[in-house]
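Input record (one chain):
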Amino acid sequence: MTPWKVEWTGAAQKDLLTLDASTLARVRAALCRLAGTGEGDVKKLHGLPGYCLRVGSWRVFFLRDSSLRTLRIFCVKPRKDAD
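The corresponding structure, as predicted from the sequence alone:
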């Protein structure tokens, strides 16, 4: 299976700057796993387009473009702020 490409919006890149090194490593590892194998703790967003990847107490929100095989990350937030 060909891995999916991961694209980051400017807002998501700013969110990454708030993460400590350990959390950043876990988020990146979870996204690499999702892009490479399709595996991960992913839920479809209710009432909104997109998906949420759960990484511990953090949430990575993204859109999936199947035709381009691209995951577009638009937000990385702690669970308490993800509502």
